[in-house]
Amino acid sequence: xxxxxxxxxxxxxxxxxxxxxxxxxxxxxxxxxxxxxxxxxxxxxxxxxxxxxxxxxxxxxxxxxxxxxxxxxxxxxxxxxxxxxxxxxxxxxxxxxxxxxxxxxxxxxxxxxxxxxxxxxxxxxxxxxxxxxxxxxxxxxxxxxxxxxxxxxxxxxxxxxxxxxxxxxxxxxxxxxxxxxxxxxxxxxxxxxxxxxxxxxxxxxxxxxxxxxxxxxxxxxxxxxxxxxxxxxxxxxxxxxxxxxxxxxxxxxxxxxxxxxxxxxxxxxxxxxxxxxxxxxxxxxxxxxxxxxxxxxxxxxxxxxxxxxxxxxxxxxxxxxxxxxxxxxxxxxxxxxxxxxxxxxxxxxxxxxxxxxxxxxxxxxxxxxxxxxxxxxxxxxxxxxxxxxxxxxxxxxxxxxxxxxxxxxxxxxxxxxxx
Length: 419
Ligand code: NAD
Description:
The chain is α/β, with parallel strands linked by helices. It contains 14 helices and 12 strands.
């Protein structure tokens, strides 16, 4: 097995490819291949046992050419600078492909949150926020949840920032609890966005959605909402999986029941249904189906299993579920992929709505959120689809990159290089 390249090396390769294809000026490529700002901080936390532990935290702004930085904060033991730099760059392309007036950023703290008490997580979050207070803000860079962070952490960030600047500033983070300026519809937004992509792709390929079969890897926030929405629209969900394994019924699963089950039990372990066959997470990816939705983790579809896939299309709910090597194999096999930067952009789009609501001190209804979400996702899908058709023989991924990189490169060109 070849050693996997670092995430930032992959990100640079993708940028190089798009810039070469578009004929982007070398000066602009050079500028975009470097994050604009990297902040690295030490976060001392007095643990419950009285000892001080020092954690490493990062906030990277890749580009603010089109607007303030936007991107999540992740807590994980694998977080390092290279990963955060790559994630920040991908946020730039994700915001650009759906045409949000935002740039790309990301943050992270290297820690194992399963080993921290709630009190320790709070102290870590507040000290981290305080250390990066100069580089975040509603007009500068707006964090959001990512792996192992959620509404509670966002509330602490909002509170710490607000204490620091002496006034309540809800627009400094998104993904907050509704009570302090969070948006309705944020929970379902990413999964619904994925479902819009499946529905539109079926429409363009003249496939009746009601006659399609769907497999979903990961039944968390993104996967369960995508499965639920597509099931309601009449697609047959034949298999889903989570950390406890795969659940398969060729006649179609009872998604409503499974959705309710995970709301109560968090995972599908011991889900009671005699018609369901338990299979492995490797097997689920190789089932014959129309749409495969990886919505769990990165690097799930690799050079090792890509050749065995029997789906017709892949719609990437997760970030980076397909390795670049697998991408090439699937392209040659004729399996088309709606890439993560487009397919899962429903989350950041709803975050953008939250920011807009906070800045304007208005509250949108759920209907308004979902309508605007659909409009933005369908527009972006259409533009990527047309780009792919026009260029011939390119993937949806490259088409999405071409649109995103072109938008950011143009913004840089118009703004010029200060001074
Ligand atoms: P989540 O934690 O809610 O769900 C993850 C799911 O994956 C869970 O069901 C978990 O059991 C399952 N899982 C974990 N390891 C697995 C394995 N080895 N095999 C199969 N399933 C496994 O996370 P989420 O918010 O749904 O995010 C999923 C992916 O989507 C991530 O890549 C995330 O970065 C991406 N994403 C999420 C959002 C969002 O708004 N939540 C937005 C954009 C992208």
